[in-house]
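Reminder: ligand-aware prediction takes two inputs, not one.
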Amino acid sequence: MNRIDGKTAIVTGAGNGIGRAIAMAFAAAGAKVVVSDVLSDDGERTVREISESGGTAYFVAADVSDVEQVENLISASVTRFGGLDILANNAGIGGGKLRLHEIEPDDFDRVINVNLRGTFLCSKYAIPHFLAQGDGRIVNTASTYGLIAAPNAAAYCASKAAIINLTRQMAVDYGPDSIRVNAICPGYIDTGLGRRASQLSPDAFAAATAIREKAAGMQPLGRQGQPTEVGEVALFLASDAASFMTGSIVTVDGGCVTTFNYGEASN
Ligand SMILES: NC(=O)c1ccc[n+]([C@@H]2O[C@H](COP(=O)([O-])OP(=O)(O)OC[C@H]3O[C@@H](n4cnc5c(N)ncnc54)[C@H](O)[C@@H]3O)[C@@H](O)[C@H]2O)c1
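Here is what comes back for the chain with nicotinamide-adenine-dinucleotide:
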């Protein structure tokens, strides 16, 4: 059931991390994948990896917060593969580690623009194609930080919470048109998001990684997740195996949000 043979899928932010894993999972399940990213070298690398594994992929550069680039992404995808069936709104950025009063307004806007407006724009221009064919599947990448609050992440938490309720709202509007809209909420996943977002030095990144691994170690599954473990869930939601799911918010977090984390005080 977790096959999407012959479907065309766009994955944003597919040059790295979770997006790359979603693109690889979609391609391995038989889809023709449009890999999109602002970083062309990274996107082209994902395309090469898919091709080398026997899959079909094509790169389109796009900043998801830019109207013209998103319109081009959607139309180039339809032109290249003759249709559009699946959209994975995955591109996202962190917001640095600051309390709200320390965040510059432009930096707040940037996080909202990429994470929330990007999800809106890509959906806006993809949905007419889904409506025309009477079928479509959207998988939004939210975050556990959209379900619970975390320190020093006001813009990011707000953007991801908004994606969660946007997912539910879109499910309401488009269910009657057989367009399913679901979201995944990854927890601690072992990607470079933190380093790219805050431009950490290698030493600072190593220190941040150690803190992250310690925090992940206190979750029920006791470790960070791998991007592939998120990609497989996105594939499930995009496939007919999830044919009765819409408006669902699916955590992929090693159990992180199921339990209060007592940390050192747990004994
Ligand atoms: N890594 C985690 O622990 C984690 C946890 C929860 C949610 N997430 C979410 O998962 C998604 C992917 O995160 P990741 O960890 O793989 O990050 P990553 O930094 O490894 O990859 C993100 C990709 O998105 C691209 N991107 C950034 N801004 C873009 C834009 N404006 N337009 C198009 N592409 C853009 C980057 O170039 C990069 O290739 C994000 O939405 C993130 O918020 C990640």
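The chain has one domain: 8-255. Strands lie at 8-12, 32-37, 56-61, 86-89, 136-141, 179-186, 249-252. We will return to this case in the review session.
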